[in-house]
Amino acid sequence: MTTLHEEQLITFVDKMPAFRSSVQRLLQLASDLNADNREIVHVIESDPLMTVKILKVINSPFYGLTQKISSVQRAVVHLGINSIKNMALSVAAIGVLPVKNQADFDSRAFLLHSLTCASLSKMLADRLHVPAEQSSDYFVAGLLHDFGKIVFAEFIPTSYGQVLKIAKEQQLALHDIESEMLGIDHSQAGKLLAQHWGLADALISAIDHHHSDHLHTHLSDCLFAANQISKQLAFGFAGNPVIEVLPARTVQTFGMPLEALILEMGDLSSLKTEALAFID
Amino acid sequence: MKFKFWGVRGSIPTPGAKTVKFGGNTTCIEVTTGSNDLLILDAGTGIFALAQTLMNKIPIVAHILITHTHWDHIQGLPFFLPFLSANNQVHIYGGMDPVTQMGIERALNVQLQYSYFPISEAQLKAKVHYHTLKPGETIDIGSAKITPTVLTHPVINFGYRIEDSDGRSLFFTGDYEEPTNLYSPDDPNHSATQQFIDTKKQEVCAAIHGVDALIVDSSYTDSEYAKRIGWGHGTFEAAMQLANDAQVKKLFLTHHEPTRSDDELEAIFQNLLNEQAEKTTFEVYLAKEGEEHLLS
Question: Same structural domain for residues A231 and A118?
């Protein structure tokens, strides 16, 4: 078993670069004095590392928010686009994540999974009539729920390569293999990091429980279903070959099981196309 | 409590015949509390003339509250002469930079580097204390209570509310542009963003509510602003609205646009008064360098 040292992990993640597509786009937009600020926000919202950087800073006591927030758009309203852009640029300055690393983890497929989960989670929130000002929290939960995986792939590539290989060959749930071989799964690692960064409690819980002890909040229900839909429709791949059935109460919340929900949501292929247009 | 404007100009000093009436120095406001504590809001070039008046009062204790670290609000800091005499104490307050995560010590650190200034930080004789503040958390300075609030600008910017024990209060915005909605009404992001903006405006209004004097960045007219959205500054009209919403007693318009002559400024002001006289429940003034106001 690989032992993860929490302090080392946190220091490591603080220096982790962002995804190639967002870094390139942000640098391009930042060099244009007349850039569309909406595009800048969109780039940041589409990158888990840039989003995390902004949320951890904005939620610290030095910026005076009475409640923790999980929305980049809200961060822009609070601090102004220039500060948010420059915070993202400081992440972009670190470099770019390799497309494939030693763990044989495909960061492009991972980002596609994360982005489609984010959009699906937000769409499902709309179905449950979640107020508009909360829907970006659902998007962020989808974007960040598997954050722990990309950290494992970068931090302990050799061990994680084995984990991914076993899950794939034996068609087993990735988080179970992670627990067995690493002593911690990606949702627990994600929770640990999110807690350390002082992110909102609802977001921490959603990340923490997206595979176990399902919470039956709207946020958890939407995230869980979004994750399964993204896998079912093969929108990208984040290492887990197993599609889980919706828990009974989640079925109740949406009024139907997974297959019916996918049909009910209509043609979702545009989500993949939009995400790919961003990634490629 | 009383306060005096030592600098009212935005962006860059503008000496010359056309600005001699309202003044060409950049932002600096001296506030004297009921128990005679010396507070200085921003260290633009106006602080140099203020510093001269302090030289015969040495030793002094000065509290400099920095709204934000753009040049026009810190440019005079290295020329604050009390730094050069032992026994003086200078406290500098401000916010944490979200990008570099450096506290307010960053301003002087950068300004006193060898390439930019002949005196290094280590050579300052006065005792300098830095205080990186948290918005919403009140601190005590002498008889006054100070509460910072984050106000939108292209860099972290605090508005400061000063409450004196004599019951008088003042709020200075620093540089402030009310947040605007990036998204058009048909965009799915519009309504959520608008709610965030409304919440933020309520928060700002509550932070200012009922002060005796509100000093606001009002760089532009509404028509000028249309081409300057996102530059981080407010308008005369927005300042009037803010003063009205926050039910303040006196409004002072400052951060005069650097190309604005005295005559133009007065014409705009007269126009504003004519248009808004009926709905104005507070007194309105143009901030003028050298002018002192007693709040009682």
Answer: yes
